[in-house]
Specification:
65 residues; mainly beta; 4-stranded antiparallel β-sheet; 4 strands
């Protein structure tokens, strides 16, 4: 089983780092312009997202290839 990569409001950060808001869709066309960025330490809770269809993802894993 793999490591969880997307997180919702209220969940705790598994590792320290910069997390960004990502859209529910995975295609290039659904990417968010100027996404909200936060810096969390391990165990910090994720804050509310801009809307209910978004999640938090670690910045290095959120890049589009």
């Amino acid at each position: 089983m793999g490591e969880q990569t997307e997180f919702e409001e209220g969940q705790r950060a598994p590792n320290p780092g910069v997390y960004v808001e990502v859209s529910e869709g995975r295609s290039f066309h659904t990417q968010i312009e100027n996404p909200k960025r936060i810096t969390l330490e391990k165990g910090d809770k994720f804050p509310e997202t801009t809307n209910k269809n978004r999640k938090w993802k670690k910045e290095e894993k959120a890049r589009v290839h």
